[in-house]
Design brief:
binds nicotinamide-adenine-dinucleotide, binds thymidine-5'-diphosphate, alpha/beta, 341 residues, two-stranded parallel sheet
């Protein structure tokens, strides 16, 4: 494993992962293959391009484009694919599910075919705890049945099943990680913590869906990166590993920690109309990953504080996104009526 193609590497988790890997493994070459959708941004990798010019390559491309995927693998002697590329936001999947099926299902198939064709050493799929559906009690284990409830979660579950089918059918050397909610630097400010932090900094309302008692395992993105690293180097082929802190908190508790960190009042909280089919609780059993010697460095509350401070210190990164027309249109569609009601 030396020449790694990171699909979706210009997005939130992918860009953090590329930075982490280039630092951790001085002998690895990382190629980012990314379509640069609204969520993919070369700015996320600006420092990486400067610091690692000799070991970092960027190719703009769609994972659904079989010819370009194959050409990229051939030209750059790729031996490993790590697939982060996806449409990722539940609320957008409720507005327009088509692109989720295209990228998260069909795109995964294109990459798997290429991995088979070129006899790659490893295909690693980045998946999510959302494939288990909501778990009102207990913690999801890797062999639990899948019960996705949103179009996003259903598309990710389909991708996972296809990855496992390629392992069973042709012995493709695959691994899968299922991460909980990631937070940290460079997250597009549509996901809750990045959205709430940046709204709070501007003294704008924080739209909490429903009663705010939904539970999530908010993990720092760097813990997710070390978890993926552990699975790449120590995981079993054909195996799935959950990645999270193993504990969870309510959205309202998360919101209050965030406001306290930024020194903003709780009066910014607005309870708004709930998301349809809103999963009440996700919770992961991460003992299988811990058995590989991995541990998380940040508890949920510390991850939230650290993340809030990053957004306070990096306005130059998120202000151009939030003031852009694309973002404003999305925000109005998703929140204008909710906040007026
Ligand atoms: P993101 O939306 O920030 O980034 C997605 C990236 O994929 C972007 O750079 C985008 O341009 C790229 N992309 C989208 N469609 C593409 C296509 N057809 N071809 C090539 N590139 C394409 O998402 P993220 O939060 O960084 O998530 C990365 C992965 O991790 C996803 O697979 C997601 O399902 C998974 N995941 C995310 C979380 C989370 O909390 N964010 C948790 C668990 C798992
Ligand atoms: P999100 O960041 O969209 O991640 P996911 O739905 O994939 O877990 O949302 C995290 C939680 O925050 C989820 O319970 C929905 C809630 N939420 C709000 O209350 N308000 C918001 O504006 C958003 C985007 C999410």
């Amino acid at each position: 494993m030396r020449h790694i193609m990171v699909t979706g590497g210009a997005g939130f988790i992918g860009s953090n992962f590329v930075r982490y890997m280039l630092h951790a493994y001085p002998e690895y070459v990382l190629l980012v293959y990314d379509k640069l959708t609204y969520a993919g941004r070369l700015e996320n990798l600006e420092d990486v391009a400067k610091s690692y010019a000799d070991r970092y390559v960027f190719v703009k491309g769609d994972i659904c484009d079989k010819d370009l995927v194959e050409e990229t693998i051939r030209t750059h002697q790729i031996d490993t694919i790590i697939n982060f590329a996806a449409e990722t936001h539940v609320d957008r999947s409720l507005m327009a599910p088509g692109s989720f099926i295209q990228t998260d299902v069909y795109g995964t198939y294109v990459l798997l075919e290429a991995a088979r064709e070129f006899d790659l050493e490893r295909y690693h799929q980045i998946s999510t705890d959302e494939v288990y559906g909501q778990v009102l009690e207990g913690h999801s284990r890797e062999d639990d049945p899948l019960a996705p409830r949103s179009p996003y979660a259903a598309s990710k579950a389909s991708g996972d099943l296809m990855v496992l089918a390629y392992h069973e059918s042709w012995g493709l050397p695959v691994t899968i990680t299922r991460g909980s909610n990631n937070i940290g630097p460079y997250q597009y400010p549509e996901k809750v913590v990045a959205l709430f932090a940046t709204n709070a900094i501007d003294d704008a309302p924080l739209p909490v869906y429903g009663d705010g008692q939904q539970m999530r395992d908010y993990q720092h993105v760097l813990d997710h990166c070390t978890g993926i690293d552990a699975v790449l180097h120590k995981g079993g082929l054909g195996e799935i590993y959950n990645v999270g802190t193993g504990s969870e908190m309510t959205n309202i508790a998360m919101t209050k920690i965030l406001l306290a960190t930024l020194g903003k009042p709780e009066s910014l909280i607005r309870y708004v109309e709930d998301r349809p089919g809103h999963d009440r609780r996700y919770a992961l059993d991460v003992s299988k990953l811990r058995a590989l010697g991995w541990d998380n460095a940040y508890a949920c509350d510390v991850a939230i504080e650290k993340t809030a401070r990053w957004y306070a210190q990096n306005e130059a990164w998120w202000r151009p996104i939030k003031s852009g027309e694309l973002y404003q249109t999305y925000y109005a569609k998703q929140y204008a009526q909710r906040l007026e009601a």
